[in-house]
């Protein structure tokens, strides 16, 4: 199938069902908030390396997690009961992105979290659309993840850990909070054994898009989540 070139219209994307076998759907456009929000709402996300044009993807199958199906491995549950980590949301979004970008990963020569991507998602964070979950040990940020939240869906982007279990704890606490808020679809994008251990599973792209349409019928929980939780606790 052809790879589509995007126009200047930030709301115009090709049907994800036209993506190539590896999930590549389109090229070009920009990383404006409007285009990113429209992309995620259509089940599409950007993923490209420095020096490449902006590439847009919609994989088939799609790795998803239903928060109610979250599985916490026994060893991690034991570590969480020890209360070694403190978890906060949205207190250090930019630092989480920086640490995700700097983390060396097997099989990767560099990072896809380019300077342009950092600026783009920081804008989404300022709009209350992108969020981070952060694990702290003795007051130091040691793990976390970030993603985008629309309606009843959360789209995970990247995570890092400087000490064992840090990102896992941040992930579990985030998923539990998402469930409490009625956010019932976590998009993990591509398949990894790591996420499968938490209960994420592959679904056909068509099923994912149907679930996403239903999730987007809910109101987006927009704003700084740390402030929302602090206000609720006071």
Task: Please provide a brief summary of the model.
The protein is α+β, with helices and mostly antiparallel strands. The protein is built from eight helices and eleven strands.
Characterization of the model:
There is one protein chain. This protein has 234 residues and is of the alpha+beta class. Helix content is 33%, strand content 24%. It is built from eight helices and eleven strands. The chain has a seven-stranded mixed β-sheet, sandwiched between helices. Strands 1-2-4-3 form a four-stranded mixed β-sheet, with helices on one face. A hairpin with a 2-residue loop joins strand 7 and strand 8. The longest helix is centred in the C-terminal third of the chain and has 15 residues. The radius of gyration is 17 Å and the shape is globular. It starts with a strand and ends with a helix. The mean pLDDT is 94.
Keywords:
alpha+beta, 7-stranded mixed beta sheet
* Succession of helices and strands: EEHEEEHEHHEEEHEHEHH
Q: Radius of gyration over alpha carbons?
A: 17 Å
Mean pLDDT: 94
What is the terminal-to-terminal distance?
55 Å
Give the strand content.
15-25%
Number of DSSP helical runs: 8
Largest sheet: 7 strands, mixed
Shape: globular
Widest sheet, order of strands: 6-7-8-9-10-5-11
Helix/strand/pairing category: alpha+beta
- In which range does the helix fraction lie? 25-40%
Low-confidence stretches: none
Total strands: 11
């Amino acid at each position: 199938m052809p790879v589509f070139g995007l126009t200047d219209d930030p709301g115009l994307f090709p049907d994800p069902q036209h993506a190539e076998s590896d999930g590549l759907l389109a090229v070009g456009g920009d990383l404006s908030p409007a285009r990113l929000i429209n992309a995620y709402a259509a089940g599409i996300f950007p993923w490209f390396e420095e020096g490449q044009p902006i590439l847009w993807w919609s994989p088939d199958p799609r790795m998803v997690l239903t928060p109610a199906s979250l599985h916490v491995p026994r060893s991690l549950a034991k570590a969480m009961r020890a209360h070694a980590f403190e978890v906060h949301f949205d207190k250090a979004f930019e630092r989480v992105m920086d640490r995700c970008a700097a983390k060396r990963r097997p099989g990767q020569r560099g990072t896809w979290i380019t300077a342009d991507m950092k600026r783009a998602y920081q804008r989404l964070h300022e709009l209350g659309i992108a969020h981070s979950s952060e694990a702290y040990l003795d007051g130091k940020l040691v793990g976390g993840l970030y993603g985008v939240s629309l309606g009843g869906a959360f789209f995970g982007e990247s995570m890092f850990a400087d000490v064992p279990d840090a990102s896992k704890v941040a992930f579990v606490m985030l998923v539990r909070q998402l469930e409490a808020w009625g956010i019932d679809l976590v998009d993990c994008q591509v398949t990894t054994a790591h996420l499968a251990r938490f209960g994420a599973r592959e679904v056909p792209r068509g099923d994912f898009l149907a679930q996403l349409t239903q999730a987007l019928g809910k109101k987006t929980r927009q704003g700084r989540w740390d402030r929302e939780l602090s206000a609720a606790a006071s």
